[in-house]
Structure formats: structure tokens, C-alpha cells
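Researcher: I'm comparing several assemblies side by side, and this is the next one on my list. It has 806 residues spread over two chains. Same procedure as the others: predict the full complex and return the structure.
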Amino acid sequence: MSAVLTAPAPSRPVAGSPMERAHPLAKLAALLPVTAVLVASMDWVSSGLVLLVAVVLLPLSGISAGQFLRRAWLLVVAALASAWGTALVGQDTGRMLLEAGPVSVSVGSALAGAATGLRILAVALPGVIVFATTDPTDLADALAQRLRLPARFVLGALAAFRLLAVLTEEWRVLGHARRARGVGAGGGPVRRTTSWLGQVFGLFVQAIRRASRLAVTMEARGFGAGARTWARTSVFTAGDVRLVLGGCALAALAAGLALRTGAWNLVWA
Amino acid sequence: MTAATVTAQGWGWRHAGRDRAAVAGLDLTIPPGQRVLLAGPSGAGKSTLLHGLAGVLDPADDSEETGRLLLDGVPTRELRGHAGLVQQDPETQVILSRVGDDVAFGAENLRVPPDEIWDRVRHALAAVGLGEDEGIDLWRDTSRLSGGQKQRMALAGVLAMRPPLVLLDEPTANLDPVGVLEVRDAVLAVVEAIGATLVVVEHRLGTWARHVDRLLVLEPGGGISHDGTPAALLAPDPVREDLAAAGVWVPGVVPEPVTPAPGGPRPAVEPSGPARSPRRDPAGHRGPAGHRDPAGTVLLSARDLAVSRQAVRPGWRRRLGPPPAPVQHGLDVTVEAGEAVVVTGPNGVGKSTLLLTLAGLIPAHAGTLTATAALKGPGVRLPDDPHRWPARDLVSRVGTVFQEPEHQFVAATVREELAFGPRHARDHRTGTRRWSDAQARARADELLEATGLTGLAEVNPFTLSGGEKRRLSVATVLATGPDVVFLDEPTFGQDANTWAVLTGMLRRLVTEGSSVVAVTHDQDFAAALDARVVELA
């Protein structure tokens, strides 16, 4: 019995990386100032520092480099593309590195490109770490219990979120079922679009049916009748406080270092 | 926890947007602790009554309530969350993503103190056989449970609320025979443990008859047609015949398949008439009307087949990661003309995946699947693998009936739904239509007649009852005259009348030389079709 009382939620897996165990709101609170600094200034010093720290912390999150790339490859590609693009079209200053007709890369534009790419990665990587290690149920508990958002709204959204996974499977089944009726792949773009729209409509119908049955299930279990208790307590620990302070410290350090080296470059200035 | 008394006094309910009441003038008393089996033909208002008892009927809009429905003297609507309800579709019985959280959900809403909740959760899960003793942790991902496990988890969620009344709406309709018994035994253990009143709705009476105190049969449009102990009502007697005739699955009675009269409307369809004349069909594509390939001709053959829902990645991307593990491999399967095959085996063994692969809807994971010239039609050039056929070439050769009829509806009315296939069928070589609009309409009319849906020809398919949807979905697939028909659990959750029509249509199809391949647990179905049984393990 005492074990039950001390554990905030017996349904939470005991194992897990430090980042997975951290309070969802603490993670968001730590992320916020860091992101604010990166958004404010376009320079490679603050971006580089944040990126460096994030890479060092990656093992703490329990996400392997491979998993990270699988989740965020699009962002990495976007970062490289913007870096390349900025280097090409950015204002040329300093020694020319490459000149081929209208295309020119100088030291200045290459640095600007690097800053752009680094900044995108530096914003993305910590965000991916936070969201990949945050369980939707824990986030909902935190929002309802700590931020006092209405339980009806938070838990409704949580259940709907779970239903989304069911609907992705439903989309595949619908595709097969419609091919079995002779609808689907083949024909010109018009026919394809019509068929796709038909499948979207089919998915809507199924989504609404599922959602209303789920609503009945939830109401039958007494949901939405008013005050409720929480089987899982959303606890803010000393470690979570340290995490928030760490986030603030990193933001301050990044901004300070960038100002000190003269790289600080306010976006709207 | 004491059990509840249920009282209905002239109770009735009309759903918003309907002309006719789902339930009307119901008078009923269920004493505390009684176990009631609620039966009746589809459309008799069984689910409406359960929803009313659970207090989840929506009084808004223009729905209309008459009389009173009381739980221990209090209107049920004021007692939402008092009665525990488990519904049919396992997927919508799951609320949260971890088993423990899901079971705790109802108790939280009833404001049970947190430390007591976890005690209740552990007891409830143990009672339904999903406890830590069975190797299921509280943090097990709910999406990784089987259908039967999901239903038992929903039951545990209800048990954790300690309700005085347990309501079950066809809780075993989507389950395999093992799952059915697991859920039934869990239900009995649960009502025993909390001493609750039980009302269970089920088509197949045999599952529950020996375990309940009372059998209530509802009549469409209101009222109770039969009320008594199962032993009295189900004894060989005119009453029992009555029930069987109303479409109730009476234990020990297998309905006689209703075969459409020969010469009359023909649901089994070989296109006839000018569209099939030699002029428009120069290759004599699969012969003239009524001439199927002789029985025994191989239509489809699979060698060393492996099947998986996850597609093998094409091209160089194959090297990116390990290939998904197939759910079945090393299968050698042939489908011959004029035979019926039934595929059985426990849930999750890959029966449906095999079916979809054979039907050309998902790619074979490994091995070869070959459609023979007999299936393609003489002189028709199509790839060997049906998965690579254009959809319109597939549907006139291979038909597939999905478990959920709604997935296959593509038109706004029942009649258009039936005419859709014939209207879009094209001759493979000439690209011309195989049926004119008038012929497509005629085929739709024939099939409406054969399925008894003529009166519903102009309604939207989504508004049909479960049995009507099933009959329609089978008929739409037969409309294009395929040589092989695949069906995924065609008799799940169907009442005895629909079952009889369905087996009659398929039996006739087989005698006319088409092949029927069905995934099913229904042994009566296999016997009615005299099917070859393939067991997957």
C-alpha cells in the first residue's frame, strides 16, 4: 500500500531516461527561454552553443542518433537547404570563395548561411528532444493538474489524439476496401482526385462514428460530470526545478556569449 | 455495493431525425442481482434501451422520451456513470493509452481517492484475467492488446467503478471463439464479485443462455414479445420456433440457407446480354453467360507465399532497415474454380492478411502469387500478380468483401451502390464498357430483389441496419461477376435471418462455378458451404 502512495503513478514505466522522467511542464519551461534567444538573434555563436549542448544532452534523453534522424530528417534537410540558399544569395562580403556566373559564395555569405542552418538545427533539436520524450498522458495530467486547464477539454483531446492512430490504420483499410470496389489508383488526375476525396469523406464518416461511440464510452464511465480525482499525481520535483534553471542558464549564456563576441544580431534590428 | 433495481414505466425513445420510436411503451422490472439476456431482431431497440439505462441518451435536438426509466427509483439520466456499459467495437472501448490509466478512468470520474483507485484497478484487472500475474503491466500499451483483451479491459474499467448495474451491448460480437469464452467468463466473475444486476444484449443466445436468470425478447417498435427463463423459452416448443423465425440465434438451431430461386433473380452473376456478345468481347473473355471454368481449374496459385501488412520497401530503400517480419510464410495455396474454402485459426495469426494478399489488395511479402490464364481470361494480357492489376480489371475477376461493410460504400443510395460496379466495368482489351447504363440498372434491380433491399433502394447505405449493410456489401461485390469472391468474417455479429440469406447467396455462387474463400470462425458457415477448411497456426 505504501508503495502505491509513494509512486505518483503505478501505470508509468519505472525505467526511462532522465528526460522521460522529467515533468512535461518543466521541459517546456526550460525550452522556452532557449528558443526565445535563438528566435531573437540570428548568429552562429548562440546557435552553435545551444546545438552543442543539445547534442551532448542527447544521450540523457534516451533517443539514439538514428531515432533522432528518423524523426527529424526533414528538419536537417531544411537546415542544409537554407544554409546553402543563404550562402548563394546572401550579401557577398570578404573574400570570394566561389564564382560561377550569377552564383557566388563569399566568406560573409557562407558565414550567414552557416548561421541560418545552425539556427534551424538549434531550434529543432531541443524541441524534438522535449516532444519525443514527453508522453501525451503525462502532458495532459500536467496541464489539468498543474495549469488547471479544464479536465473535460484536456482528457477529451487526449482520447481524440489516441483515436488518430486508429484512423491512420483506418485510412489504409479504406484504401484497400475501395480498390476492391474498383475505385482508386489509375485514371487521370481528375479521377484520382475525385477518388481521393471520396476516401477522405469515407474517413470522415468513420472518424465521426468512432468519435461518437468513444464519447458514449467516456460518458458511461462518468466523464464530464464535474470534479474528478486523479489517479496519477503530476509531481514537480527538485530535479524539475534544476531543469528549468538549466534552461534559463543556457539561454543567458548563449545570449551573453553572442553579445560578448559581437555576433549578436537581432532579427528585427 | 448493492445491486440496482431497474424499472421501466411505459418508457419509449425516439431518436432525433427518425419518424418511428426505437422503443415504445416498455414496462419492465428487473429485481436487484438478476442476470438478464436481452434479445430481439435487429431494429428492436436493444441498444437504445441499454444506452437509456446507462444515462447516455442525448435529450437534445428533437429526440423524444416518453414514460420513465428508473434505477432504484431515480431517472437514469441523473445517474450517468452509475451503470457500467461495455459496447461492441473494441477500438472505441479504449480511452487512454496505458492499461492502468484506462481502467482507472471511470473511478477517477466518480471521485474515488487516488490510493484506493490503484487497489481497485489491480483487483479489476486480475478479475478479468489481465493482471500482472498474466504478464500485463499497468503501463502496457493498450493498442497492443487483442480485441478480446480490449473488451476485458473495458470490463475491468467498469468493475473499478463498482457499478450496481452492468450493461453489455454485444460484447463478444467481434471476437473469435476463444475470446468469446474469455469475455463471458470475465463478465460472470465480475458480476459475481460486485453482486451487480446484469443486462447483456447478444444475438447468439447459446453463449449466455445457461448463465442467466431471465431471457427478454424485444419486439421491433416497442414492447416485450417474450419474457421467461432461458430453459422455458428455449425448450423445443413453438416459442423457440418463434424466436428462431425472428432471427434470434437459438442454441442448437442452424438456420437453413435461403437460396434465391433458380430462374428468378440471380445474385450470382455472369453478365448476360449484348455487352457480352462476341462483337464487343472478341476474346470471349471468360466465356459466355453461365459458362464458368470447369470445376477443378486452378484460378490462383501461391507458392512459398509470405504475407505481411507492412509493405517491403521498394528499391534501394530496402537496405535502410531490417525487413518487417511476415506474419505467415511458406504457404502454398491454390484456389480452384467452383470450390469453397474457409480459412480459420486464432486471432492475430494473419488470416485477413493472407486474404488481402490473395485478393490482390496488398503486395505479397515474399514468394509468388500467380493468377492463371483461366482467371485472367483467354488472350488477356495482365501481369501474373493480381496486385499489379488496375482496380477495374481486378473487380470483374476477384471480389473482396471487407469485415466492415461501411468501408466499401462509395455511392449515395443503395441502388447506385449496386449499379456502381457494372457501370464502371470495362473490357480489358477494348476499353469499352461491359454493361450499358440500362443493363447496370437491371443488374442492380436483380440484386435488390435477391437481397430483399428493394424497399430501401433510395436510402443512403450508411443508414441501413447492420444486417442490411452486410447483405448490400456482398451484393455490390457480386454485381461485377467475379470468378473468385473473398470474404473477411462475413457472418460476424449477424442475426440468423441475415446469415441464412448470406449463406444461400454464396452457396448458389459456388454451385454456379465461382469460388468462395472466407476467413471465418463460424463452423456452421463452413458446413453450409461444404467448404474445404484451411487452418492457419
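Model: For your comparison table: Residues 6-245 of chain B form a domain with the Rossmann fold fold (CATH 3.40.50.300).
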